[in-house]
């Protein structure tokens, strides 16, 4: 058991409550709610993971890691559902954290990990007048 157990348990319970209380948006996307799941959910989970892995290294036990990953994946699934898509997120906490650290943007990280929303592959050229 690590010093992070209480925070991880609180995050896991919040994620479960968010799943239980989720209602599909009437007219997707619900960008505001999707952003909340990322910032207040995935972002908090990444924060705990990074804190545990840096500085005063505090290894997380298997149960803590499973709970943290399940919470992050729950929020990524809810993020996708806010965009009208259903996914089965099975990312490791390391994958999620690396994406956030690399992009420095939890929204872009979620987009890269989940593919939601799909990127507009159309090239828009600016013309000079």
Which terms would index this structure?
62% helix; DUF8055 domain-containing protein; mainly alpha; 0% strand; DUF8055; 129 residues; single chain; globular
Tell me the layout of helices and strands.
Blueprint: H1 5-20, H2 31-53, H3 62-82, H4 93-103, H5 106-114
Helix pairs in contact: 1-2, 1-3, 2-3, 2-4, 4-5
Radius of gyration: 16 Å
Distance between the termini: 65 Å
Query: pLDDT under 50 segments (min length 5)?
Result: 121-125
Mean pLDDT score: 90
Share of helical residues: 55-70%
Number of helices: 5
The main β sheet shows up as: none
Strand content: under 5%
- Give the CA-based shape: globular
User: How many β-strand stretches?
Assistant: 0
User: What structural class results from the helix and strand content?
Assistant: mainly alpha
- Total of domains: 1
In quaternary terms, these chains amount to: single chain
Order of helices and strands: HHHHH
Describe the structure.
The chain has helices spanning 5-20, 31-53, 62-82, 93-103, 106-114. The protein is globular. The protein contains 5 helices and no strands. Helix 4 packs across helix 5. It has one domain (5-114). With 129 residues, the chain is mainly alpha-helical.
Quick structural summary:
It holds the Pfam family DUF8055. With 129 residues, the protein is mainly α.
């Amino acid at each position: 058991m690590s010093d992070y157990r209480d925070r991880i348990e609180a995050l896991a319970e919040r994620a479960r409550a968010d799943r239980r209380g989720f209602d599909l948006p009437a007219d997707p996307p619900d960008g505001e709610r999707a952003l909340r799941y990322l910032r207040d959910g995935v972002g908090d989970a990444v924060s705990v993971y990074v804190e545990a892995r840096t500085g005063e290294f505090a290894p997380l036990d298997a149960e803590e890691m499973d709970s943290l990953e399940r919470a992050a994946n729950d929020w990524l699934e809810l993020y996708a559902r806010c965009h009208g898509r259903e996914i089965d997120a099975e990312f490791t906490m390391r994958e999620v954290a690396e994406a956030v650290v690399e992009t420095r943007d939890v929204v872009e990280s979620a987009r890269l990990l989940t593919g939601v929303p799909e990127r507009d592959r159309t090239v828009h050229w600016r013309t000079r007048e």
